[in-house]
């Protein structure tokens, strides 16, 4: 599936440094640079719920993207992130 098919859909992007950024995909180019609107970073912790840091309009360089997935909005809306405990992702090592 081409990323172009996810334009105007909510996606989750995991970056090479272990960040999880969720937002509406607005654009992507041949270098896989992405533009997300209404985005936020989900910061995981083993001691507190998931913190959501508002980013707004956000550009992610393609060479910093590890994985991209479409978010199922129905499932995502039913998750109480304040109850989720998980260690932060570690940076990707090449």
Features:
94 residues; mainly beta; 1 helix
Q: What is the tally of helical segments?
A: 1
User: Tell me, what's the shape?
Assistant: globular
Low-confidence stretches: none
Q: What is the alpha-carbon Rg in Å?
A: 13 Å
Helix content: under 10%
**Strand tally, please?**
5
Summing up helix and strand content along with how strands pair, one would put the structural category as mainly beta
Main-sheet strand order equals 4-3-2-1-5
Tell me briefly what this model is.
This protein has 94 residues and is mostly beta strands. The chain is built from one helix and five strands; from the N terminus they run E-E-E-E-E-H.
Explain this structure to me?
With 94 residues, this protein is mainly β. 6% of the residues lie in helices and 44% in strands. The two termini are 25 Å apart. The mean pLDDT is 95.
